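Lecture notes, continued. The same structure-token format from the folding unit now serves as the input rather than the output. Read the line below as a description of shape only.
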């Protein structure tokens, strides 16, 4: 029964649950806790998928009072382990390809920015161009914050500071790794269980988290005004940008910025839910082994 429960849980957490969470905009009121919840859902889906086959092995190989496992049960266990290896291998291949592609794009773009951009204090690169554009390029050793001349000309000093604080927050908290994790899962899982809404919502929450950090440093009003100015900006591939996203995302971000009231109860509930999601599949896999060990110890 446990393998079936874990299999159903994996499918639900990979598809329907993210789709439902994506339709709950109130979660964005606590973007940090919501982001943790989304990560827990994704990780629990992986644990459940791997645990389903491990639980099948447990069911057929653990010693019981009735008999010693026979050849058919060993064969089932071998097949289950093969499926586990397939799932794990697919995740590893997806992680390698996604990471390699992103790092290649970022290195190439960073070389171009270093060649064409003007260096300013604080590690900021300024590119020529009237359209206001601001983004950051994460890097293994040194990230870059890039803005266009249009940002420096159209935005006042406080707004520029807010935009820079937003981009530095992305680099400081390594939001790129969070987005990359969900990109890996989106590519690794089959399309019929993979949810695009999860990746889109996580990208939005990452921007909201950077907004919160920038608002604490530079103020909510300058940041909101800067976001409106950057509404038409486009962020290059493999980068994170303050103006990146759809019009609906921009409205949602400004709405959250306009609601600074702490929602500690909601945050606590979401964090507790995230912890429960991680514990459930782990316990379903570990419990049979633990019960067997205790039964043998008391025998």
């Amino acid at each position: 029964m446990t393998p079936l429960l874990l299999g159903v849980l994996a499918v639900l957490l990979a598809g329907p649950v993210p789709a439902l969470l994506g339709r709950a905009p109130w979660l964005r009121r606590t973007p940090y806790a919501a982001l943790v919840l989304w990560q827990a859902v994704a990780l629990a889906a992986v644990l459940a998928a791997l645990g389903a086959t491990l639980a099948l092995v447990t069911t057929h190989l653990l010693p019981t009072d009735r008999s010693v496992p026979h050849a058919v049960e060993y064969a089932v266990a071998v097949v289950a382990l093969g499926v586990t290896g397939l799932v794990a291998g697919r995740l590893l291949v997806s992680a390698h390809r996604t990471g390699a592609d992103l790092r290649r794009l970022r290195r190439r773009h960073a070389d171009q920015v270093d060649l064409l951009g003007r260096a300013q204090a604080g590690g900021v690169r300024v590119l020529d161009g009237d359209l206001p554009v601001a983004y950051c390029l994460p890097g293994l050793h040194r990230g870059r914050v890039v803005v266009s001349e249009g940002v420096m000309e159209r935005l006042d000093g406080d707004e520029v500071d807010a935009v820079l604080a937003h981009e530095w927050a992305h680099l400081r908290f390594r939001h790129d790794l969070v987005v990359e994790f969900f990109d890996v899962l989106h590519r690794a899982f089959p399309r019929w269980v993979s949810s695009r809404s999860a990746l889109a919502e996580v990208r939005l929450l990452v921007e909201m988290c950077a907004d919160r950090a920038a608002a604490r440093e530079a103020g909510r009003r300058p940041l909101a005004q800067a976001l409106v100015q950057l509404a038409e900006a486009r962020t290059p591939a493999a980068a994170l940008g303050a103006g990146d996203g759809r019009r609906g995302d921009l409205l949602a971000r400004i709405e959250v910025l306009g609601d600074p009231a702490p929602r500690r109860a909601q945050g606590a509930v979401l964090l507790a839910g995230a912890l429960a999601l991680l514990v459930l599949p782990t316990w379903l896999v570990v419990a049979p082994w633990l019960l067997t060990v205790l039964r043998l110890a008391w025998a």
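Point for the exam: The chain has one domain: 2-298.
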